[in-house]
Amino acid sequence: MRAHAADALILRTYRYGEADRIVVFLTADRGKRRGVAKNASRSRRRFGGALEPLTRGRVEYREREGRELVWLERIELSRSPLASIGHHGADESAHRFAHASYFAELIDEWAPDAQANERLFRLGAAVGEALTTGTSSTALARYFEYWLLRLEGLYPALETCPRCERATLADGAVLVAIDRLYVCDDCAVAGPRLSRDAVAFLKRAGSRTPAETAVERLGLQAQRELEDVHHRLIAMHLEKELRSARVVRELGPES
User: Fold this and answer.
1) What b/e sequence results for 66-82 when a residue is b if at least 16 CB atoms lie within 10 Å of its CB, and e otherwise?
2) Handedness of CA 214, 255, 229, 81 (dihedral sign)
3) Domain limits at 228?
């Protein structure tokens, strides 16, 4: 068996027998992997609190050629977005936990097995870090969705209306979901609309870091507009709605 060690993001875990767990994790150089964590439910020394969604840590594992599952030896925790939850109120802590799960599930759905995607790893790591220190999980979620779609070449352009080729979209845009286009009001027949504030947020997101975005207070109307548009685009790509997305939505807006 070949031994490996890598910086990784924990995406999800699930039970495997009585005390073992299957751990899904993402590395920058070897992509998404799945591994058996023996006695993970009992071994605090080897795994501790490193199995929560979007946790970053040093993963040591062994793999055998031809086997999909690797053998996890230990995970050395370096950063967890849940570490600061105890310092916040119940409502904010619930939002942070739900968003960490949402980000991790999105990455899990997006990342193919065993294919390196350094940009996706860096995005997930930076968003997880921002979640520990920022004040707005909602703004961070809209940023993450935007960049996730953009990195895959799936985010519609927000410059000039592609139908009339005259109107700029700075004052607002309407999504034509079937064509994955934003168009101006005059060229739109129907569809979810982004206001000037929502478009301006996306423009800022294009040149900001997650940490800068996480301290931004996004207006409630812009929040709802972006959430609607992004979830439509994501659902079109994945052909389903994520369970964690429903949990986030049920929590409602941040106070």
Assistant:
1) eeeebbbbbbebebbbb
2) positive
3) 86-251
* E-strand stretches of 43-121: 56-63, 69-79
CATH classification at residue 106: 1.20.1440.120
- Residue 64 and residue 144 in one domain: no
**Long-range pairs of 251-254 with CB within 8 A, sequence gap ≥ 24:** 251/94, 251/95, 251/98, 253/138, 253/220, 253/223, 254/91, 254/92, 254/95, 254/136, 254/137, 254/138
Q: Are 32 and 111 in contact (CB under 8 A)?
A: yes
Mean pLDDT over residues 4-24, rounded? 92
Distance CA 192, CA 180 (A): 12
Tens digits of residue pLDDT in 124-166: 999 999 988 867 899 999 999 999 999 999 999 999 999 999 9
Which of 186, 163, 180 lies closest to 230 in space, CA to CA?
180
> Which pTM was predicted?
0.92
Rounded to the nearest 10 degrees, the angle between the axes of helix 137-151 and helix 196-205 is 70
- Regarding whether 132 and 6 lie in a shared domain, the answer is no
Cα 67 → chain centroid: 28
CATH number at residue 22: 2.40.50.140
Tell me which amino acid residue 171 is. D
Comparing 82 with 89, the larger pLDDT belongs to 82
How many whole angstroms separate alpha carbon 39 and alpha carbon 119? 32
User: 71 and 119, same structural domain?
Assistant: no
Collapsing DSSP to helix, strand or coil, 9 comes out as strand
Same domain, 41 and 107: no
Residues 158-172: pLDDT tens digits?
999 999 999 999 999
Do 41 and 106 fall into the same domain? no
